[in-house]
Amino acid sequence: MSFTKMDPPPLVCGIDQGTSNTKVCVFDSNTGEVLASSSIETKRIEPNEGWTEMDPLYVLETVVNGIEIVAQQLKDKNISIKQVKCLGITNQMLTFLSWSKKTGKPFYNAIGKISQK
DSSP character for 30? Predict the structure, then answer.
């Protein structure tokens, strides 16, 4: 893919979905300037001391809402979402989740480990 000086710069989107929040950020790949960002707090379920779970459908909702917020911020700046040419995603480390192949729904909450940092 080649770009001319007249082309708008390609943008990069990053999604960081963690145990405390879901962050979405879009930046200019040439300058590193952050053009749009969102951070949405996530809710943890702690059924026992040292255990942590998350509702996977709620987690998905925070990702979708974060993308919608960032898309609107870009639109407000007259920047086309079509300029996003790359997407990076990171998710919770040490978290287990199982989905039903038949229904497409999770069998249970995501089960994770609380960081001791």
Answer: T
| Residues recorded for the chain | 117
Report residue 108 as tokens: 């249970």
Its pTM stands at 0.85
Distance CA 31, CA 49 (A): 45
* Amino acid making up residue 84: V
Q: Which residue has the tokens 């950020």?
A: 25
Could you tell me the mean pLDDT of each successive run of 10 residues in the chain, 117 residues long? 69 94 96 97 88 92 97 97 95 87 94 72
The β-bridge relationship of strands 95-96 and 84-90 is: unpaired
Write out the E strands in the chain: 11-17, 21-28, 34-41, 51-54, 84-90, 95-96, 110-113
Q: Are 87 and 93 in contact (CB under 8 A)?
A: no
